[in-house]
Amino acid sequence: MWEHILAGFLETMQPFNLFLAIAGLVGGIVIGALPGLTATMGVALMVPVTFAMDATSGLIMLGAIYSGAIYGGSNSAILINTPGTPSSVATTFDGWPMCKKGKADEALIGSLTASCIGGFIGTLFLLFVAAPMAKLALKFGAPEFFWLCIFGLSTIAAMSVNNVAKGLVSGALGLLVSTIGLDLALGVPRFTFGYYPLVGGIEVIPAMIGLFSFSQVIYLVASKQKFIADYNPSPGALSRVLRKFWTSCKVNLLRSSLIGTVVGILPGAGGEIASIISYNETKRWDKDPSRFGTGVIEGVAASESANNAVIGGALAPMLTLGIPGSAVAAVIMGGLLAHGIQPGFKIFESSGNLAYTFIVSLLVVNVLMFFIGLFLIKGTARVLNVPAAYIGVGIVALSVIGSYAIRNSMLDVAIMVIFGLIGHFGGRIGLDTGTMALGIILGPIIEENLSKSMSIAGAEGSVFSVFFTHPISLVLIIFTVFSVSAPALIAKWRLKSNAQGGGQNG
Amino acid sequence: MDKRMSDRLAGLFAIVPAIVFYWQGRQLAAESVLFPMVLEAFLLIMGLYLLGRSFTGAGGKTDDEHLTYSRAWVMIGATAVYLIGMDLIGFYVSTSIFLIAVSWFFNDHGYTLRSFGMSALFGVVMTVAIYATFSLFLQVPTPEGLLF
Amino acid sequence: MKCSKKWLVYLIAVLTLAMLIVVAGCGGKKDSDKAMKYPTKPINMVMAFTAGGSSDVQARIMQKYWDKLVPQPWVFQYKTGAGGAIGFSEIAKAKPDGYTIGGVNVPHIVLQPIGQNAQFSIDDYIYICQVVNDPQALVVNKNSRFKSAKEVIEFAKANPGKLKVGIVGTYSGSHMALLEWEDQAGIKTAQIVYKGAADQNAALLGGELDVMMGNVNDVMRSLDMMTVLAVTSKERIKFLPETPTFKELGMNVFSDIRRGFVVQKGTDPQIVKFLRDTFKKIAEDPEYIKDMEKAGQPTEYLSGEDFEKYVKENNANAQTLLKKVGLAK
Lengths: 506, 148, 329
Known about the structure:
The structure holds three protein chains of three kinds. In chain A, about 75% of the residues lie in helices and about 0% in strands. By secondary structure, chain A is mostly helical. Chain A has one domain. The longest helix of chain A is centred in the first third of the chain and has 36 residues, at about 105-140. By secondary structure, chain B is mainly alpha-helical. By secondary structure, chain C is α/β, with parallel strands linked by helices. Chain C has two domains: about 45-135 and about 255-325, Bordetella uptake gene, domain 1 (D-Maltodextrin-Binding Protein, domain 2, 3-Layer(aba) Sandwich), CATH 3.40.190; about 135-230, Periplasmic binding protein-like II (D-Maltodextrin-Binding Protein, domain 2, 3-Layer(aba) Sandwich), CATH 3.40.190. Chain C has helices at about 1-35, 55-70, 85-95, 110-115, 150-160, 175-185, 195-205, 215-220, 270-285, 285-295, 305-325; strands at about 45, 75-80, 100-105, 125-140, 165-170, 190-195, 210-215, 225-230, 255-265, 300-305. In chain C, strands 1, 2, 3, 4, 5, 6, 7, 8, 9 and 10 form a ten-stranded mixed sheet that branches. In chain C, helix 4 (about 110-115) runs parallel beside helix 11. The chains are: A mainly alpha, B mainly alpha, C alpha/beta. At the A-B interface, helix 9, helix 10, helix 18, helix 19 and helix 20 of A face helix 1, helix 2, helix 3, helix 4 and helix 5 of B.
């Protein structure tokens, strides 16, 4: 194995392969940063190009695009409060407040460093324990998935401590909207309001672009701000971030990377769920959860390390079982097959060189990404120096093209605008765009697995045993109950101890 | 905005969609509407709770900033015109017009020739950048219209 | 001042008129020459499934060979959603000028109008050719207690509604194959619908499902861990020589997934002929066939006429079957 790893490293270091890795990273970061262009799209666009190369070089480039795009999404999340890919939704929770406080450079460097660390750790898992990890994917059935998503949803309760009722309404509205379209169990059109094109459902990305960026533009022009946020680049940002990560974020980064890897393994759950769960867990285990959402780097670190760790996880079942753990992994598998390589447990023997080179190249890519990212951040942060009038209209134009790019449909552009209005005016009455986006993202997955679980329960004759007796489900249920009740309990406990301590802050 | 008013509107925002979706799905089979029904019921309860709270709860100001809505409506209206224009005259032409006109309207330096020049420069550079990235490099289709 | 303004108006009027005449002239010329000179601009290739999916990969391979024969390229447009129905209706609605070709899947284009009020019908298209035929397979986990299709059927007969069968999507090839199998074997199963082949395969390997009905192409990737009990093809499959067909087991289960290309009804017959000839040339290119094999695409070429005949036949069968099981009126 070690000789394979060494050979893979040398192969990656070939000038042509290094060039492909760098080009892939830059392209990926740009694609990821543009709202509406996803990692899946970026990788899919480049698969035909790899047909002309040998399989190893092609894979190195695809892996670099994948890593770059998932990281790139955080740039727009931080700078213009618009997640570039759905994986970065949770990055907006703290990244954007940091930017508003004038700490954009720290947020950007933090997200870059966390992405590289997360990606590296995820890949290490892929390198050493791919096969056992893949077996874990098989343990996750429909009921486990259902509970995993409910656990993800419990974030809502934690996110909106001061306003639980409206937070829940926002989440439920998002979930309800996500049920528009064909239902999965019977395949009949639902909630199309007599307008046939809605049968395709509300696509997550246009809705998300609307909720985050178009609503933001309305706010920006209405508030008469001159710039989106103050930007005071301070020379020591890099070393400050690194020191902070080393002293107080080690556990956070490890935990988030682990969550990202595990969620990545599961087919059907990707970066968006991993980053939400990691964000929530980091907040829960923090000494002072209330500071989350006000612009703390720990929040950015949790979300971004998790979504890049997903990559290693998603590739494990793809390589060893032929079951891709994410949409991007599925596209990469298409590329593998086109080169005549069959995935499976044998891949490490039959195509050992290729498999190890691919994995080792991902490690190299994550190191390269750090330096390329640092270089690019200098440019991207300049966005904040552009007057708000230009930025506002620029975001509208990008939102339009980004919404259109997903399905090439003007309907999606209209959906983007409508959700922008809902997001803005809903925000005025205390509804939360972040939780609504959570609902729209998680809704289809929850319903799919609920419906599958019900079908299974129908066959086995017991709803209870399907939902409440599987061990992984039980663990997730306990987590969920804890997650929902913890903020209230902690608040109550604080109140009590405050009262006993004579009103002093404990 | 008054807190009660905000609660009342949020309550309606929960109840109205719940009823509309229930009405839309009333003829579908149980398997198709199981999950939406749960959500509708939940929204109805939460909506009623918020409405109730708006009548019994404490009033007071919500802490929101002052926004100039005339400017917001200009932006929303301009976007609507932009979308219609895109269908009629094409994505790139309408994008450059939208970028130039609206960024000039919102600029901070008054309606001078100089500020118009800035907006024009911005509009053209941005359109070219979008064209280069999306059409040339990524070959992602852009909305089609009569012209370019 | 006034005078000059008047002149300006006249000038603009004259110029506009002149432009209109030129445009009209061009238009007229184009019309008469269209059949001779096609294509004169890039052709839209509408894909009803996402970039990077099997349909897309197939079309991209084809594009490579199209580019060698025809100077105008394809521009890929992804109109995805609702199991392909969005894209299929987009193709049907496009202007029949030969500049919008689309990829369609059977049985999807047959079943969606019957079961889901889709906004197109199989008569909206002119069929260019069929390029892929992927049969369905009845598959169990390698460690399953079932060793043959017969054992599965016996279990299902003894326990109606208890056999958990996974399919991918409703009104899809695997759904159809399951309905046919239930009908032919006289059994009733619990159908569990998955979104994609990946989670369906994972569920079978993880033991959530008893059996599954899936594309042979998707099953091939996990063959070390699965046993194929029967396939829906007319003859045994080359790389599964041990596996019987449903036909051999005495059941008429033939559902498969076929992919082909279409244009709209009303397209100029000369354009249709050009497209059919070009696609035939590509489909018969040995290099193309080799590329398809490498990508794991089960190639089967049918001419436009034969493909249309197949679609009509499939439609008649589906109507009867769906009526029988109560999914169509």
